[in-house]
Amino acid sequence: MQKSEVLQGTLDLMALKVLDALGSLHGYGIARRIEQVSEQVLQLNEGTVYTSLLRLQQRGWIVSDWGTSENNRKAKYYSITKSGRKQLACETENWERIAGVIGRLLRLEGQE
Amino acid sequence: MIHYLRALAARFRGLFGDQRADRELDDEIEMHLRLLTERYVRQGMTKAEATSAARRQFGNVTLLQEASREMRGIRSIETIFQDLRYGLRMLRTHKALTAVAVFSLALGIGANTAIFSLIDAVLLKMLPVERPEQLYFIQNHRTRQQEGIDPAPPYPCYERFLNRQQSFSDLAVFVNPFNIRVTIDGQIDEPTGQYVSGNYFSLLGINTVLGRTLSPADDAMTDGIMAVISYNYWIRRFGQNPAVIGKVVQISGKPVTIIGVTPPEFYGLDPSMAVDISLPIRMEYAKSMANSGAWWFRAAGRLKPGIEVEHARVELDTIYKTFIADIGNSGALKYFDRIELASASKGLNTLRKQYSRPLLALMAIVALVLLIACANVANLLLARATARRKEFAVRLALGAGRLRLLRQMLTESLLLVSLGGLLGLLFARRGSAVLVNLLGIEQGKFLVNPPLDYRVLLFTTAVSLLTGLLFGLAPALQAARIDPNPTLKDSAGTTRIGGLLVGKSLVVAQVGISLLLLVGAGLFLRTLHNLKNVDAGFQRDGVMMMSVKPAENVYRGTQLSSLWKDLLARVERLPGVRSASLSDRIPLSGGSLGIAVKVPGFTPSSDQDRIISLNQVSPRYFQTFGIALLSGRVFADSDNETAPKVALLNESAARFYFGDRNPIGEQITIIHKIRDYQIVGVVKDSRYQKLREPDARMIYLPIRQPLDPLGGLALAVRADDRPTELVNPIRNEARAAGSDILLTNIATLSEQVDRTLAQERSIATLSLIFGLLALLLAAIGLYGVMSYDVARRTHEIGVRMALGASARRVVQLVMRETLGWVVLGVTLGLGATLAATRWVESLLFGLKPRDPLTIGLAVLLLLAVAAVAGYLPARRAARVDPLVALRRE
User: Fold this and answer.
1) From B28, B60, B61, residue closest to A76, measured CB to CB
2) Closest alpha carbon to B196 in B170, B242, B227, B234
3) Model confidence over B564-609: pLDDT tens digits?
């Protein structure tokens, strides 16, 4: 399977969603969940997650803090903020609307 | 909140290259790779295979590190430059808007800065001496308050201060400055001089730029008389020649050596009376210094650090009271009851008292104009921001943060305001010089500091920033609040009913403020007109005047009076001279000499009733000045030294002392000379003080029967046609009559009248300029907002026209809305005007502050201009093509 090119913006959105649904995670954990949810359809350079996380931090949608990982090592954990949640809700609504429109469009063609 | 702060801190660190963040990322990457490797190992790979698989899965580490560094650090600085470049590009694209905005801002900021630098010099500046806050004037309090500082106790008491007091580290005495006649290389000059004690300069902490200052050793004048000159005088009179040190000049017939030049910022203790030359006090006042009954000197002292002012005052007061008891002059306590200490740090600023009202009024006016300019620029920017909606929506959709957008808008505003501020500084430089001229302050005497004083720069920067925030915030916030989706869809659905509310309220405010300023201008203009046309009791055209002062010790007694006779005769014989006169005082000269008189049949109800102003005049004085004779006769040549003593009264005096009785033939006694004069005539009142003030009682005495010998007189000449052509002939005659006669203050009477009106004229001019400026700005603002409104409502207008509305109907519609807002503005402005004009009542003459004619005219002017400003966009609305308009949906 080709590693499909995913828009940076979409990766940001996915990372945000993961943090919203699953609470605090470190970078590796987020990457794993994205892989899981996408059922390995989306394969990307995992390092790009960190670029997304930095961008999300700069926008104030997530914050980072230090904590201990599963094997007692120090790791950086990320969690979503209130404005992050707002942003997520906004983006979700957008996506659903677009998806709806495209869906209708595709069904339309079928009716011809 | 803490998270936010931390993010901010991280951003700040990122500005300068953040090693900590780099290391943290490295740790994260390292952990991520390790976990990936472990996973692959669990899945069955070898360690080596797992490692490379993990690496492949992860992607390029170095690229990630660099990208992160870029995102974190340089980004912030880079974005600032991006913002600036973008802002500059925006400004260059909309050149017209930029020009209008920058120019309005420059005018507003420049005007504020110019007035502030004046206020700074007049009201706020400390004396350019060492630690002025420690300096205090020692005043003997009189029960009647006076301008300037009160005198100090007599010198013998001051000597007791020197010997006994402990609170001051040093004390010095001085005399109020006045014009001193100095002969330099045979030329006569009259600089402002001040007599001071030897430690005056060391008390103030003034050093010299050349030579040395006076010292206590110079007090005794054993090596001759030493003097110190000011920097200004050095430039004016000595051409900045260093050879001035050691130069000998003549003062009062004695040789005086110049030993030093003080720095340029030092002008004495009062900036409005810049001292040119300082001399030892013993030179002229040796007798007064021994006199226990002379309250002639002023004194100042430097308080020791740590001593309370009240403690020092009580100490001096005790010494003073003891002194009075010792000399047995308890009567003095009636007038000089105690010692007061007044802070010297702002200097004896008589200028301050005179000009603080108008200057502060000016500041208020100018601040209002700046507000209007800001409102205008804000409106312009708002309009443009709304036009740029789509641009912002696209940027937001592409991922720009709202904060970034806000920052962008503010950057643009700050760019505008910086350009405006810089231009404004240039205006201010020119402006304050013009202002000083307009406010009628003599250029030489009053030193205005150049606007690049740090305090003024600080003020300009603060005002600019505030202005920028004021007008930049509104459009910036509006931009940041844009919802990208509907905006991108370009629907007209976002039009609010009565949209542009902010813009329109700004216009209302502008109109209101303009009305206020226009009414002010009208009031001041009419005041000026009234003053110019007031009947001052004399004819002002065609009269030339000058002050004549013979050298003091050369002419005395009979020599002096024959000099005057000779001079007057010579001048009257000149061709082109209709009449000439010599007098003590001339109309509108200010200054008053009051004497006490006794009139038979008149009982004074207070001491004031006895006081009458005196003028000693030659016979043709009334003819020369055109002062009408009401009854009796004027003086004649026969009223000389041996003839019976005669006097003339003016109308007010005659009425006051004699009521309905005929004063002619009555006697009047001058109390301090115990001399009787017979009244031979009554003349019309004329203004001697200011045009505003009602006429005082006046008595005229013939110049050949003076009360005291006359040192200097005013010569007035009525010419057949051009008075200025007589100046040189008169000079020649004066030189022929006597060689060392100083002629100064040469001016025509009408020039003198104008000079007294200088303050009123300047206020009227300035308020007119600012009023019109405000009106112009308001009109531009109105035009801008209404144009924009029409543009926005093109669709609606198209619909109306399609439904059958005529062009005229559309114009009416738009104009009705425009005038609605204007009327609202006028109403609010009227309210403000009625409330505020109360404060300028003292500046007006001949009309009340709520003068209906003035207010009515201002309102009409405003409405007319607003109608024109509103008509143009209305006409554009009428020309809308309904088809094009409807198609835009």
Assistant:
1) B28
2) B227
3) 888 888 888 888 888 899 888 888 776 667 788 888 888 888 877 8
CA A8 from centroid of its chain's CA atoms: 10
- Residue that is written with structure tokens 């420690």 in the block: B134
pLDDT of residue B498: 39
Closest to B4 (Cβ–Cβ): which among A28, A31, A60?
A: A60
**pLDDT tens figures, A20-73:** 988 888 888 898 888 887 766 666 678 888 988 988 888 888 998 888 877 778
To test the contact with chain A by mutation, choose from B57, B63, B407 the residue with the greatest count of A C-beta atoms within 10 A, namely B57
Cα distances (Å, whole numbers) of residue B767 to A98, B523, B532, B606, B772: 62, 9, 18, 43, 8
Q: Measure Cα distances from B246 to B240, B242, B341 in Å.
A: 14, 10, 38
Looking at the DSSP assignment, which residues form a beta bridge with residue B715?
A: B546, B582
Helices (H) and strands (E) in chain A, counts: 4, 3
How do strand B187-189 and strand B248-251 relate by DSSP bridges?
A: unpaired
- pLDDT averaged per 10 residues in sequence order, chain B, 889 residues: 67 62 86 90 89 88 80 65 81 77 80 78 65 83 59 86 88 86 82 90 87 87 89 83 90 89 78 81 85 83 89 90 84 77 68 66 79 77 72 71 75 85 82 67 48 69 78 72 64 46 80 89 90 83 85 73 86 88 82 78 81 87 90 87 88 88 86 85 85 82 81 85 83 79 81 79 81 82 78 78 82 86 90 82 82 90 89 80 68
Size of interface A-B (CB pairs under 8 A): 64
0.90 exceeded by pTM: no
Residue of B nearest to A66 (CA): B24
- Three-state SS for B172? strand
Residue contact B36–A26, C-beta within 8 A: no
Distance CA B337, CA B143 (A): 7
The three-point CA angle A75-A78-A79 to 5° equals 145
Cβ-based contacts of A47 with chain B (< 8 Å): 29, 32, 58-61, 63-64
- Pair of tokens at residue B296: 């002639």
**CA-closest candidate to residue B756, choices B709, B688, B699:** B688
Q: Which residues in chain B touch residue A54, judged by CB atoms under 8 angstroms apart?
A: 68, 71-72
Residue of A nearest to B70 (CA): A51
The residues with which A77 forms a beta bridge, in sequence order, are A26, A65
Q: Which of B1, B2, B3 to mutate to test the interface with A (most CBs of A within 10 A)?
A: B3
What contacts B400, CB < 8 A, 6 or more positions away? none
CA of B88 to nearest chain A CA: how many angstroms apart? Answer: 26
What pLDDT is stored for residue B4 in this prediction? Answer: 66
List, as one string, the DSSP characters of B370-396: HHHHHHHHHHHHHHHHHHTHHHHHHHH
3-state DSSP assignment of residue B73: helix
From chain A, pick out residues whose CB is under 8 angstroms from the CB of B399. 9
Question: Which chain A positions have a beta carbon within 8 Å of B35's beta carbon?
Answer: 28
Preferred mutation among A28, A78, A81 to probe B, highest tally of B CBs within 10 A: A28
- Kindly list the residues from chain B whose CB atom is less than 8 angstroms away from the CB atom of residue A58: 7, 11, 71, 401
Map tokens 């007031």 to a residue. Answer: B534
Output the CA torsion sign for B653, B656, B657, B663.
positive
Dist CA B583 CA B620 (whole Å): 10
Query: What is the number of residues in chain B?
Result: 889
Whether residue B337 contacts residue B822, with contact meaning beta carbons closer than 8 Å, is answered with no
Instruction: Classify strands A25-26 and B675-683 as parallel, antiparallel or unpaired.
Output: unpaired
* B60–A48 C-beta distance less than 8 A: no
CA B575 to the chain's CA centroid: 46
Nearest to A60 among B7, B32, B71 (CB): B7
